[in-house]
Amino acid sequence: MKPQEFRDMSDDELRARVTELTDALFHLRLRRATAQLPNPMKVRETKRDLARAKTTLRQREVRP
Q1: Residue 39: left (phi > 0), alpha (psi -120 to 50), or beta?
Q2: Does the CA dihedral 21-26-31-35 come out positive or negative?
């Protein structure tokens, strides 16, 4: 997702997205460890989306 898409979400949507991405990342790492992951770039995309979501939440806490 683009950073602007995260900025357009509400705080509750962002928190839900962070939880969803954290779970997805766990499962992707597990599949990568067992060599069952067809697209290893998905791990990188998920990590970056998670970082974008957390950054947006933190920016809102610091700058109301």
Answers
A1: beta
A2: positive
CATH number of residue 36's parent domain: 1.10.287
Q: How many domains does the chain have?
A: 1
Six token digits for residue 55:
């950054």
> Average pLDDT per run of 10 along the chain, which is 64 residues long?
92 97 97 92 97 96 86
Joined together, the tokens standing for residue 50 give 């998670």
The tokens 């969803």 sit on which residue? 20
Q: Name the pTM for this structure.
A: 0.89
